[in-house]
From TrEMBL:
Record-linked NCBIfam families: trpS
CDD domains: TrpRS_core (cd00806)
Similarity comment: family membership: Belongs to the class-I aminoacyl-tRNA synthetase family.
Uppermost EC category: ligase
Gene3D superfamilies registered for this protein in UniProt: HUPs (3.40.50.620), S15/NS1, RNA-binding (1.10.287.10), Tyrosyl-Transfer RNA Synthetase (1.10.240.10)
Signal peptide: none
Gene: WARS1
GO MF terms held by the record: ATP binding; tryptophan-tRNA ligase activity
Stored Pfam families: tRNA-synt_1b, WHEP-TRS
Organism lineage string: Eukaryota, Metazoa, Chordata, Craniata, Vertebrata
Gene Ontology CC, one term: cytoplasm
Species whose genome carries this gene: Anser cygnoides (Swan goose)
UniProt name for this protein: Tryptophan--tRNA ligase, cytoplasmic
Domain WHEP-TRS, first and last residues per copy: 1-44
Length: 448
Protein backbone atom coordinates (compact mmCIF):
# COMPACT_ATOMS: atom_id res chain seq x y z
CA UNK A 1 0.00 0.00 0.00
CA UNK A 2 1.12 3.52 -0.64
CA UNK A 3 1.62 5.45 2.55
CA UNK A 4 0.70 9.08 2.12
CA UNK A 5 2.71 11.18 4.49
CA UNK A 6 1.01 13.97 6.41
CA UNK A 7 -1.09 14.07 9.54
CA UNK A 8 -4.84 13.83 9.97
CA UNK A 9 -4.99 17.60 9.93
CA UNK A 10 -3.50 17.57 6.44
CA UNK A 11 0.11 17.50 5.19
CA UNK A 12 2.05 20.52 4.04
CA UNK A 13 1.85 21.48 0.38
CA UNK A 14 5.28 19.98 -0.12
CA UNK A 15 4.23 16.66 1.33
CA UNK A 16 1.10 16.53 -0.77
CA UNK A 17 3.15 17.44 -3.81
CA UNK A 18 5.62 14.65 -3.06
CA UNK A 19 2.82 12.16 -2.45
CA UNK A 20 1.12 13.02 -5.73
CA UNK A 21 4.39 12.66 -7.58
CA UNK A 22 4.97 9.33 -5.90
CA UNK A 23 1.53 8.14 -6.95
CA UNK A 24 2.20 9.22 -10.51
CA UNK A 25 5.50 7.40 -10.53
CA UNK A 26 3.87 4.28 -9.05
CA UNK A 27 1.29 4.45 -11.82
CA UNK A 28 4.13 4.63 -14.30
CA UNK A 29 5.92 1.65 -12.73
CA UNK A 30 2.61 -0.20 -12.81
CA UNK A 31 2.28 0.53 -16.47
CA UNK A 32 5.84 -0.46 -17.29
CA UNK A 33 5.57 -3.80 -15.47
CA UNK A 34 2.04 -4.69 -16.52
CA UNK A 35 1.78 -2.85 -19.82
CA UNK A 36 -1.62 -1.54 -18.73
CA UNK A 37 -2.88 1.75 -17.38
CA UNK A 38 -3.63 1.67 -13.68
CA UNK A 39 -7.33 1.67 -12.86
CA UNK A 40 -8.42 1.63 -9.24
CA UNK A 41 -10.06 -1.66 -8.31
CA UNK A 42 -9.18 -3.39 -11.57
CA UNK A 43 -6.36 -5.92 -11.27
CA UNK A 44 -4.13 -6.34 -14.33
CA UNK A 45 -5.06 -9.05 -16.79
CA UNK A 46 -2.88 -11.36 -18.91
CA UNK A 47 0.18 -10.61 -16.82
CA UNK A 48 2.23 -13.57 -18.00
CA UNK A 49 1.82 -12.52 -21.58
CA UNK A 50 2.72 -8.93 -20.92
CA UNK A 51 5.86 -9.80 -18.99
CA UNK A 52 7.04 -11.75 -21.98
CA UNK A 53 8.48 -8.57 -23.37
CA UNK A 54 5.42 -7.10 -24.99
CA UNK A 55 5.71 -3.93 -22.87
CA UNK A 56 6.25 -1.00 -25.18
CA UNK A 57 9.62 0.53 -24.48
CA UNK A 58 8.41 3.99 -25.56
CA UNK A 59 6.27 4.07 -22.46
CA UNK A 60 9.12 3.49 -20.06
CA UNK A 61 10.60 6.95 -19.72
CA UNK A 62 8.92 9.93 -18.18
CA UNK A 63 10.70 13.28 -18.43
CA UNK A 64 9.38 16.74 -17.63
CA UNK A 65 10.86 19.66 -15.66
CA UNK A 66 9.66 18.10 -12.38
CA UNK A 67 9.93 14.33 -12.78
CA UNK A 68 12.45 11.99 -14.36
CA UNK A 69 11.65 8.30 -14.23
CA UNK A 70 12.49 5.20 -16.22
CA UNK A 71 12.32 1.50 -15.51
CA UNK A 72 15.61 0.90 -17.30
CA UNK A 73 18.67 0.49 -15.04
CA UNK A 74 20.85 2.01 -17.77
CA UNK A 75 18.87 5.22 -17.39
CA UNK A 76 16.68 7.19 -19.77
CA UNK A 77 16.93 6.27 -23.45
CA UNK A 78 18.35 9.55 -24.70
CA UNK A 79 18.24 8.70 -28.38
CA UNK A 80 14.49 8.25 -28.08
CA UNK A 81 14.20 11.48 -26.12
CA UNK A 82 15.93 13.33 -28.98
CA UNK A 83 13.31 12.00 -31.36
CA UNK A 84 10.45 12.77 -28.97
CA UNK A 85 11.65 16.31 -28.22
CA UNK A 86 12.73 16.98 -31.81
CA UNK A 87 16.26 18.13 -30.97
CA UNK A 88 19.49 17.09 -32.70
CA UNK A 89 22.16 14.69 -31.51
CA UNK A 90 25.61 16.12 -30.82
CA UNK A 91 27.62 13.95 -33.19
CA UNK A 92 31.33 13.60 -33.86
CA UNK A 93 31.15 16.13 -36.70
CA UNK A 94 29.79 18.81 -34.40
CA UNK A 95 32.33 18.02 -31.68
CA UNK A 96 35.14 18.26 -34.26
CA UNK A 97 33.78 21.57 -35.47
CA UNK A 98 33.73 22.91 -31.91
CA UNK A 99 37.31 21.75 -31.49
CA UNK A 100 38.37 23.54 -34.66
CA UNK A 101 36.53 26.73 -33.70
CA UNK A 102 38.03 27.00 -30.20
CA UNK A 103 41.39 25.41 -30.97
CA UNK A 104 41.22 23.25 -27.85
CA UNK A 105 40.27 19.76 -26.80
CA UNK A 106 36.50 19.72 -26.18
CA UNK A 107 35.35 19.31 -22.58
CA UNK A 108 35.01 15.72 -21.32
CA UNK A 109 31.23 16.30 -21.07
CA UNK A 110 31.21 16.64 -24.87
CA UNK A 111 33.73 13.87 -25.51
CA UNK A 112 31.66 11.46 -23.40
CA UNK A 113 28.16 12.32 -24.55
CA UNK A 114 27.12 13.96 -21.26
CA UNK A 115 26.02 16.97 -23.28
CA UNK A 116 24.40 14.90 -25.99
CA UNK A 117 21.77 16.99 -27.76
CA UNK A 118 21.43 20.51 -29.14
CA UNK A 119 19.34 23.00 -31.03
CA UNK A 120 21.05 25.36 -33.49
CA UNK A 121 24.57 24.96 -32.08
CA UNK A 122 25.78 25.19 -35.69
CA UNK A 123 24.41 28.76 -35.81
CA UNK A 124 26.36 29.69 -32.69
CA UNK A 125 29.54 28.29 -34.22
CA UNK A 126 28.84 30.10 -37.44
CA UNK A 127 28.46 33.37 -35.54
CA UNK A 128 31.63 32.70 -33.57
CA UNK A 129 33.63 31.78 -36.67
CA UNK A 130 32.49 35.08 -38.20
CA UNK A 131 33.54 37.07 -35.12
CA UNK A 132 29.95 37.76 -34.12
CA UNK A 133 29.21 37.68 -30.45
CA UNK A 134 26.62 35.70 -28.53
CA UNK A 135 25.89 35.21 -24.84
CA UNK A 136 25.29 32.33 -22.46
CA UNK A 137 22.23 31.86 -20.24
CA UNK A 138 21.68 29.18 -17.62
CA UNK A 139 19.89 28.96 -14.28
CA UNK A 140 18.95 27.19 -11.13
CA UNK A 141 15.82 26.82 -9.02
CA UNK A 142 16.95 27.42 -5.43
CA UNK A 143 14.68 25.00 -3.57
CA UNK A 144 16.98 24.44 -0.61
CA UNK A 145 20.43 25.19 0.71
CA UNK A 146 21.56 21.68 -0.07
CA UNK A 147 23.16 21.46 -3.48
CA UNK A 148 24.51 18.13 -4.67
CA UNK A 149 27.19 17.20 -7.20
CA UNK A 150 24.60 16.71 -9.94
CA UNK A 151 23.64 20.38 -9.70
CA UNK A 152 27.18 21.33 -10.67
CA UNK A 153 27.09 19.66 -14.11
CA UNK A 154 25.55 22.58 -16.07
CA UNK A 155 27.68 25.09 -14.19
CA UNK A 156 30.98 23.26 -14.69
CA UNK A 157 30.18 23.10 -18.38
CA UNK A 158 28.97 26.70 -18.63
CA UNK A 159 32.15 27.89 -16.97
CA UNK A 160 34.16 26.05 -19.60
CA UNK A 161 32.04 27.55 -22.39
CA UNK A 162 32.50 31.03 -20.96
CA UNK A 163 36.24 30.51 -20.87
CA UNK A 164 36.71 29.08 -24.35
CA UNK A 165 34.31 31.44 -26.14
CA UNK A 166 34.94 34.47 -23.91
CA UNK A 167 31.33 35.69 -23.84
CA UNK A 168 28.96 37.26 -21.29
CA UNK A 169 26.90 34.96 -19.09
CA UNK A 170 23.62 35.52 -17.25
CA UNK A 171 22.47 33.10 -14.54
CA UNK A 172 18.82 33.13 -13.48
CA UNK A 173 17.95 32.04 -9.95
CA UNK A 174 14.24 31.22 -10.07
CA UNK A 175 13.35 31.85 -6.44
CA UNK A 176 9.89 32.89 -7.66
CA UNK A 177 9.46 29.45 -9.27
CA UNK A 178 10.37 27.69 -6.04
CA UNK A 179 8.00 29.92 -4.07
CA UNK A 180 5.21 28.95 -6.47
CA UNK A 181 5.94 25.23 -6.51
CA UNK A 182 7.12 24.54 -2.97
CA UNK A 183 6.03 25.26 0.53
CA UNK A 184 8.39 28.22 0.97
CA UNK A 185 8.06 31.89 1.88
CA UNK A 186 9.38 34.43 -0.61
CA UNK A 187 12.00 35.44 1.98
CA UNK A 188 13.29 31.89 2.33
CA UNK A 189 13.38 31.37 -1.44
CA UNK A 190 15.41 34.57 -1.88
CA UNK A 191 17.76 33.50 0.91
CA UNK A 192 18.33 30.14 -0.80
CA UNK A 193 18.99 31.99 -4.05
CA UNK A 194 21.83 33.92 -2.43
CA UNK A 195 23.21 30.81 -0.72
CA UNK A 196 23.11 28.82 -3.96
CA UNK A 197 24.82 31.72 -5.74
CA UNK A 198 27.85 31.02 -3.51
CA UNK A 199 28.12 27.44 -4.75
CA UNK A 200 27.69 28.63 -8.33
CA UNK A 201 30.34 31.35 -7.94
CA UNK A 202 32.66 28.72 -6.40
CA UNK A 203 32.67 26.98 -9.82
CA UNK A 204 35.01 29.78 -10.88
CA UNK A 205 32.95 32.29 -12.89
CA UNK A 206 34.54 35.60 -13.80
CA UNK A 207 32.77 38.47 -12.02
CA UNK A 208 33.55 40.82 -14.91
CA UNK A 209 31.73 38.57 -17.35
CA UNK A 210 28.86 37.15 -15.29
CA UNK A 211 25.58 38.52 -14.03
CA UNK A 212 23.67 36.37 -11.52
CA UNK A 213 20.16 37.48 -10.67
CA UNK A 214 17.29 36.49 -8.41
CA UNK A 215 13.92 36.77 -10.16
CA UNK A 216 12.32 38.16 -6.99
CA UNK A 217 14.94 40.88 -6.91
CA UNK A 218 15.78 41.76 -10.51
CA UNK A 219 12.43 41.45 -12.31
CA UNK A 220 10.77 44.39 -10.68
CA UNK A 221 13.74 46.67 -11.27
CA UNK A 222 14.35 45.93 -14.94
CA UNK A 223 12.05 47.40 -17.51
CA UNK A 224 13.64 45.42 -20.31
CA UNK A 225 13.01 42.15 -18.53
CA UNK A 226 9.39 42.78 -17.64
CA UNK A 227 8.57 43.96 -21.13
CA UNK A 228 9.84 40.69 -22.53
CA UNK A 229 7.81 38.71 -20.00
CA UNK A 230 4.56 40.36 -21.13
CA UNK A 231 5.50 39.94 -24.77
CA UNK A 232 5.88 36.22 -24.22
CA UNK A 233 2.69 36.10 -22.14
CA UNK A 234 0.71 37.72 -24.93
CA UNK A 235 1.83 35.08 -27.44
CA UNK A 236 1.29 31.85 -25.52
CA UNK A 237 -2.17 30.52 -24.74
CA UNK A 238 -3.28 28.54 -21.68
CA UNK A 239 -3.95 25.67 -24.02
CA UNK A 240 -0.34 25.69 -25.20
CA UNK A 241 1.19 25.61 -21.72
CA UNK A 242 -1.26 22.90 -20.72
CA UNK A 243 0.03 20.87 -23.63
CA UNK A 244 3.70 21.57 -22.95
CA UNK A 245 3.80 21.42 -19.15
CA UNK A 246 0.70 19.47 -18.17
CA UNK A 247 -0.79 22.33 -16.13
CA UNK A 248 -4.40 21.84 -15.15
CA UNK A 249 -7.30 24.15 -14.33
CA UNK A 250 -6.49 23.91 -10.64
CA UNK A 251 -2.87 25.06 -10.92
CA UNK A 252 -2.40 28.60 -9.62
CA UNK A 253 -2.00 31.28 -12.26
CA UNK A 254 1.54 31.91 -11.00
CA UNK A 255 2.62 28.53 -12.32
CA UNK A 256 0.77 29.02 -15.55
CA UNK A 257 2.56 32.27 -16.33
CA UNK A 258 5.96 31.24 -14.97
CA UNK A 259 7.30 29.82 -18.27
CA UNK A 260 7.35 33.38 -19.64
CA UNK A 261 9.76 34.31 -16.83
CA UNK A 262 12.15 31.49 -17.66
CA UNK A 263 11.88 32.45 -21.34
CA UNK A 264 12.73 36.16 -20.95
CA UNK A 265 16.50 35.83 -20.27
CA UNK A 266 16.84 34.20 -23.72
CA UNK A 267 16.42 37.69 -25.20
CA UNK A 268 19.29 40.15 -24.91
CA UNK A 269 16.97 43.12 -24.45
CA UNK A 270 16.13 41.74 -20.99
CA UNK A 271 19.57 43.01 -19.92
CA UNK A 272 19.90 46.54 -21.31
CA UNK A 273 22.79 47.34 -18.95
CA UNK A 274 24.89 44.48 -20.38
CA UNK A 275 23.97 44.62 -24.05
CA UNK A 276 23.52 48.34 -24.38
CA UNK A 277 19.92 47.88 -25.48
CA UNK A 278 20.86 45.51 -28.35
CA UNK A 279 17.90 43.27 -29.12
CA UNK A 280 19.22 40.72 -31.54
CA UNK A 281 22.10 39.04 -29.83
CA UNK A 282 22.01 35.28 -30.14
CA UNK A 283 21.72 33.32 -26.88
CA UNK A 284 23.08 29.84 -26.05
CA UNK A 285 21.52 27.91 -23.18
CA UNK A 286 23.34 24.95 -21.60
CA UNK A 287 20.86 22.97 -19.45
CA UNK A 288 19.70 19.49 -18.50
CA UNK A 289 17.27 18.06 -21.06
CA UNK A 290 14.32 18.29 -18.63
CA UNK A 291 14.35 22.09 -19.08
CA UNK A 292 13.79 21.79 -22.82
CA UNK A 293 9.98 22.28 -22.64
CA UNK A 294 10.56 25.89 -21.48
CA UNK A 295 12.80 26.57 -24.42
CA UNK A 296 10.67 24.81 -27.00
CA UNK A 297 8.03 27.31 -25.99
CA UNK A 298 10.56 30.17 -26.10
CA UNK A 299 11.78 29.21 -29.56
CA UNK A 300 8.23 29.03 -30.80
CA UNK A 301 7.45 32.55 -29.57
CA UNK A 302 10.77 34.25 -30.46
CA UNK A 303 10.19 34.97 -34.17
CA UNK A 304 6.68 36.20 -33.42
CA UNK A 305 8.03 38.91 -31.12
CA UNK A 306 10.94 39.78 -33.39
CA UNK A 307 13.79 38.02 -31.57
CA UNK A 308 16.25 35.28 -32.55
CA UNK A 309 15.56 31.80 -31.20
CA UNK A 310 17.92 30.75 -28.41
CA UNK A 311 20.26 27.83 -29.18
CA UNK A 312 20.54 24.97 -26.68
CA UNK A 313 22.97 22.36 -25.42
CA UNK A 314 21.28 19.55 -23.46
CA UNK A 315 22.84 17.32 -20.84
CA UNK A 316 21.81 13.92 -19.53
CA UNK A 317 20.63 13.63 -15.91
CA UNK A 318 22.97 12.93 -13.07
CA UNK A 319 21.88 9.51 -11.76
CA UNK A 320 20.84 8.89 -8.16
CA UNK A 321 23.22 6.75 -6.09
CA UNK A 322 20.64 3.98 -6.11
CA UNK A 323 20.61 3.73 -9.90
CA UNK A 324 19.95 5.57 -13.14
CA UNK A 325 16.17 5.01 -13.02
CA UNK A 326 15.90 8.51 -11.63
CA UNK A 327 18.07 11.58 -11.18
CA UNK A 328 19.83 12.65 -8.02
CA UNK A 329 17.42 14.50 -5.76
CA UNK A 330 18.28 16.92 -2.97
CA UNK A 331 15.21 15.87 -0.99
CA UNK A 332 16.53 12.33 -0.50
CA UNK A 333 19.82 12.56 1.43
CA UNK A 334 20.78 8.97 0.63
CA UNK A 335 20.37 9.46 -3.09
CA UNK A 336 22.83 12.34 -3.22
CA UNK A 337 26.34 13.43 -2.53
CA UNK A 338 26.10 16.96 -1.24
CA UNK A 339 28.60 19.74 -1.72
CA UNK A 340 28.77 19.97 2.08
CA UNK A 341 29.57 16.27 2.65
CA UNK A 342 32.75 15.38 4.55
CA UNK A 343 35.28 12.92 3.07
CA UNK A 344 33.94 10.31 5.47
CA UNK A 345 30.30 10.85 4.43
CA UNK A 346 31.29 10.60 0.78
CA UNK A 347 33.04 7.31 1.42
CA UNK A 348 30.18 5.82 3.45
CA UNK A 349 27.48 6.88 0.99
CA UNK A 350 29.31 5.44 -2.00
CA UNK A 351 30.20 2.21 -0.27
CA UNK A 352 26.73 1.77 1.16
CA UNK A 353 24.39 3.14 -1.50
CA UNK A 354 26.05 3.32 -4.93
CA UNK A 355 24.27 0.78 -7.11
CA UNK A 356 26.72 -1.83 -8.33
CA UNK A 357 26.87 -3.57 -11.67
CA UNK A 358 29.13 -6.18 -10.10
CA UNK A 359 28.27 -9.83 -9.44
CA UNK A 360 26.99 -11.30 -6.20
CA UNK A 361 30.18 -13.16 -5.29
CA UNK A 362 33.84 -12.56 -6.04
CA UNK A 363 34.02 -15.89 -7.88
CA UNK A 364 31.15 -14.96 -10.19
CA UNK A 365 32.53 -11.47 -10.68
CA UNK A 366 35.93 -12.81 -11.71
CA UNK A 367 34.27 -15.26 -14.05
CA UNK A 368 31.59 -13.07 -15.70
CA UNK A 369 32.76 -9.53 -15.02
CA UNK A 370 30.83 -6.39 -14.01
CA UNK A 371 28.35 -4.32 -16.01
CA UNK A 372 29.47 -0.70 -16.47
CA UNK A 373 26.18 0.24 -18.15
CA UNK A 374 24.26 0.05 -14.87
CA UNK A 375 27.06 0.64 -12.36
CA UNK A 376 26.55 4.03 -10.72
CA UNK A 377 30.17 4.38 -9.56
CA UNK A 378 31.34 3.91 -13.11
CA UNK A 379 28.74 6.40 -14.36
CA UNK A 380 29.94 9.02 -11.86
CA UNK A 381 33.53 8.44 -12.99
CA UNK A 382 32.51 9.24 -16.57
CA UNK A 383 31.34 12.62 -15.28
CA UNK A 384 34.33 13.45 -13.10
CA UNK A 385 37.45 11.50 -14.03
CA UNK A 386 39.32 13.68 -16.49
CA UNK A 387 41.77 11.08 -17.80
CA UNK A 388 40.26 9.28 -20.84
CA UNK A 389 42.84 6.48 -20.84
CA UNK A 390 42.39 5.72 -17.17
CA UNK A 391 38.61 5.61 -17.60
CA UNK A 392 38.95 3.16 -20.48
CA UNK A 393 41.32 0.97 -18.45
CA UNK A 394 38.85 0.91 -15.55
CA UNK A 395 36.05 -0.01 -17.90
CA UNK A 396 37.95 -2.91 -19.37
CA UNK A 397 39.19 -4.17 -16.02
CA UNK A 398 35.71 -4.00 -14.49
CA UNK A 399 34.03 -5.63 -17.47
CA UNK A 400 36.55 -8.47 -17.51
CA UNK A 401 36.16 -9.08 -13.78
CA UNK A 402 39.73 -8.16 -12.95
CA UNK A 403 38.54 -5.09 -10.99
CA UNK A 404 36.07 -5.61 -8.13
CA UNK A 405 33.19 -3.29 -7.17
CA UNK A 406 34.96 -2.26 -3.95
CA UNK A 407 38.02 -1.30 -5.93
CA UNK A 408 36.02 0.70 -8.45
CA UNK A 409 34.22 2.49 -5.62
CA UNK A 410 37.58 3.34 -4.10
CA UNK A 411 38.62 5.09 -7.32
CA UNK A 412 35.39 7.09 -7.26
CA UNK A 413 35.79 8.00 -3.59
CA UNK A 414 39.33 9.18 -4.25
CA UNK A 415 38.12 11.26 -7.19
CA UNK A 416 35.22 12.91 -5.39
CA UNK A 417 36.80 13.61 -2.00
CA UNK A 418 39.44 16.09 -3.24
CA UNK A 419 37.01 17.58 -5.78
CA UNK A 420 34.42 18.37 -3.13
CA UNK A 421 36.99 19.53 -0.59
CA UNK A 422 38.35 21.96 -3.18
CA UNK A 423 34.83 23.20 -3.88
CA UNK A 424 34.26 23.80 -0.16
CA UNK A 425 37.54 25.69 0.04
CA UNK A 426 36.56 27.97 -2.87
CA UNK A 427 33.06 28.46 -1.49
CA UNK A 428 34.54 29.69 1.79
CA UNK A 429 36.19 32.53 -0.10
CA UNK A 430 32.83 33.67 -1.49
CA UNK A 431 31.67 36.35 0.93
CA UNK A 432 28.30 38.14 0.93
CA UNK A 433 30.16 41.06 -0.63
CA UNK A 434 31.28 38.90 -3.56
CA UNK A 435 27.72 37.63 -4.04
CA UNK A 436 26.53 41.22 -4.11
CA UNK A 437 29.02 42.09 -6.84
CA UNK A 438 27.84 39.26 -9.06
CA UNK A 439 24.19 40.15 -8.42
CA UNK A 440 24.40 43.87 -9.09
CA UNK A 441 22.91 44.87 -12.44
CA UNK A 442 25.83 46.45 -14.31
CA UNK A 443 27.77 46.60 -17.52
CA UNK A 444 30.13 43.65 -18.01
CA UNK A 445 33.60 43.61 -19.58
CA UNK A 446 32.19 43.60 -23.12
CA UNK A 447 31.34 46.41 -25.53
CA UNK A 448 28.09 46.23 -27.47
N1 LIG B 1 13.84 25.90 -13.81
C1 LIG B 1 15.21 25.63 -13.51
C2 LIG B 1 15.30 24.75 -12.24
O1 LIG B 1 14.34 24.50 -11.57
C3 LIG B 1 16.02 26.89 -13.29
C4 LIG B 1 16.35 27.63 -14.56
C5 LIG B 1 15.90 28.88 -14.91
C6 LIG B 1 17.18 27.20 -15.64
N2 LIG B 1 16.41 29.26 -16.09
C7 LIG B 1 17.21 28.26 -16.58
C8 LIG B 1 17.94 26.04 -15.87
C9 LIG B 1 17.94 28.16 -17.77
C10 LIG B 1 18.67 25.95 -17.06
C11 LIG B 1 18.68 27.01 -18.00
O2 LIG B 1 16.38 24.31 -11.89
Amino acid sequence: MVQLRGSATGGSLDEIDAAVRMLLSLKLSYKTTTGQDYQAGLPPTDLALINNGTTKEEDEDFVDPWTVQTSNAKGVDYDKLIVRFGSTKIDTDLINRIERAIGQKPHRFLRRGIFFSHRDMDQILHAYENKKSFYLYTGRGPSSQAMHVGHLIPFIFTKWLQEVFDVPLVIQLTDDEKYLWKDLTTEKAYEYAKENAKDIIACGFDVNKTFIFSDLDYLGSSMGFYRNIVKVQKHVTFNQVKGIFGFTDSDCIGKISFPAIQAAPSFSSSFPQIFNGKENLQCLIPCAIDQDPYFRMTRDVAPRIGYPKPALLHSVFFPALQGAQTKMSASDPNSSIFLTDTPKQIKTKINKHAFSGGRDTIEEHRKYGGNCDVDVSFMYLTFFLEDDDRLEQLKQAYTSGELLTGELKKVLIETLQPMIAAHQERRKQVTDEVVKQFMTPRKLAFEF
